[in-house]
Amino acid sequence: MFEPIDLTHRQQHILWATVQHYVATAEPVGSKALVDEYNLSVSSATIRSGMGALEKVGLLYQPHTSAGRIPSDFGYRLYVDELMTPSATLSQQVTELLSDRLNWQNWSLEALLRGAAQLLSNVSGYITLITLPQTQTAQVRHLQLVQVDPKRVMLVVVTDGYETRSALMDLAQLARETAEVAIDPETLERELQILSNFLNDRLRGRSLGEVAALDWSELDREFSRYADSIAKWLSDLTEELPEPISNRMMVSGIAEVLRQPEFAELARVQTLLALLEEERDLLGPLMFVPTLGQSLPSKRANVLIGAENPLEPMRICTLVSATYQRDTVPIGSVGVLGPTRMVYEDAIALVEATADYLSDTLSQKN
Question: What global pTM score does this model have?
Fold first, then answer.
């Protein structure tokens, strides 16, 4: 990471203007362009001197000796951290677009995330990445025991990511101690509902992996015969849940971003496409999703600029991501991937607004 640096107000203004001009034009920036287009209230010579000072501390550099200057990754970092504010207007606009165009009441979670990814890539012009809810920390949203026929019961578990898991068990297995005792249907239905209520009360909002910590002694004696079998049943279901797969990810907007001049070199395009198409499992960890017990980062969006990205194909890119939640539980991330010459004010606003929309929507969805 880069060491913090103190700049004068004038140097900050020159760096801000240089980033703004380069992002807009993709051309190295000279002092005359800043004099002509920005109200810096100083001479061209003073701006040249200021740009030289910014170059000495690594915030700007010259791609060629006779060229103007362009921001370094360090320059973009300082710009993002200290000199810009996400666009509130764009944030409101994308929230309205998402609300108008996505039919979350009737869509599946996957369809909702796919629609959000497509809309975000269209608005931003960057590659959009949205991870599906991870299953390793899946928490119980609802649980129900249902008799499906005279000899079998089904356990249905719905996780916070709206993933459904179910398992069948013979009644003889469920209550071995009474295997030879017939249970009339009304009694069985009542007992299964009481057991369902007990399990929902104890497990809702907790991971299936926490089933081992359940205090089964709180069950009345008449239901205690079910305890061992249900505990094993839930444990087996937990083991069946797939490990979190980072490539469970919606990707949209590749064609749009590859039109940017930064991707004119074929080799760069090929390595980035290989990463997006074949190695998505490497991308997931870069889009921060806290596990149970971890807190969200203090800043709403996480921004990885150029060399800050640990993956070589991404070092000409910036990844802006934010976590979305269901209630207070982080379950996935929204991100945009584009050139370091990115409109950071817009990208951060778009990502934050989309993450907030998904959080609000999933918290309301039954």
Answer: 0.73
